[in-house]
UniProtKB/TrEMBL annotation:
Domain ATP synthase F1 complex delta/epsilon subunit N-terminal intervals: 1-57
GO cellular component: endomembrane system; proton-transporting ATP synthase complex
CDD domains xrefs: F1-ATPase_delta (cd12152)
Function: Produces ATP from ADP in the presence of a proton gradient across the membrane.
Keywords associated with the record: ATP synthesis, CF(1), Ion transport, Membrane, Transport
Pfam families assigned: ATP-synt_DE_N (PF02823)
Family of the protein in this entry: Belongs to the ATPase epsilon chain family.
Parts forming coiled coils: none
Membrane topology: Peripheral membrane protein
Source organism of the structure: Chryseobacterium oranimense
Protein's recorded name: F-type H+-transporting ATPase subunit epsilon
Main localization category: membrane
Amino acid sequence: MNIKILTPEYVVFEGEVNSVLLPGKNGEFHIMKNHAAIVSSLIGGKVKLFTSSVGESYAKNFTKENEKDSVFSYPIKSGVVEFNHDKGIILCE
């Protein structure tokens, strides 16, 4: 599935991921391939991408959670996510 993470200043990430874990108002939620369409607000926390790599141009924006798993995190203050047809856009600050 394709995920794009945007801030008002720049594109944080754009590419293929296996899944994404997001900090929602009612707790974290996981979006995986073939997930139902969703629009949700996000609170402060970490957006976690489950993917083999984030690419050189985006690597500076992410922290690798651990060496064993391919989980990359990006801290946000708030935002919104829209996901439909295996494509997601995360607008955040």
